[in-house]
Amino acid sequence: MLNYARLPLAAAACLLPFSMALAASSTPAASNAPGSSCIGDASQCPAWMPSQAEMRSSIADYFCELADQGLFQPRVKQLIRAESSPLNCGALQPEPGSNFVCGGEMRFIGKGGEIHRIQFSPTLRREQDGRIAFYVGDDEHAEHLWRVPAPRSSSPTCAPHG
Prior knowledge:
- Residues 1-23 form the signal peptide.
- Keywords: Signal.
- This protein is an alpha+beta fold.
- It contains two helices and eight strands; from the N terminus they run αβαβββββββ.
- It has one domain.
- It has helices at 9-15, 52-68; strands at residues 19-22, 79-84, 88-91, 100-110, 114-120, 123-126, 132-138, 144-147.
- A hairpin with a 5-residue loop joins strand 7 (132-138) and strand 8.
- Residues 1-34 have low confidence and may be disordered.
């Protein structure tokens, strides 16, 4: 259970400053990123933590879903790719099933090489079915609300267009 209040990720994403930059080079796709999503001692980086590839994919799925819902608009002309930077994650407790936090940068890359960057640090957990869920706030009974994003392949905003 969280000991502090966090803004829902969607609201926080809307409040973050947006920046544009030209792409000099891109990072490897999320599916190609090996290794753990965290580095540190066993209490902050237990063996159950997701891999870089899994976390980067989940983060990209979530931001594409936010864009699909109209909660923000990537500021690039003709989006060709959405990807997460390498992440720094840490468990809030060492026990399996505990919440964890990841920080990084989401990049929406346009056809002309421009990049729309958004920094993030959501609270996450692994659902019983193995998928990654994002903390999105509390309901009227102060129960935590979690959201598993749809895959980016089904996103009208981010899916590859043939």
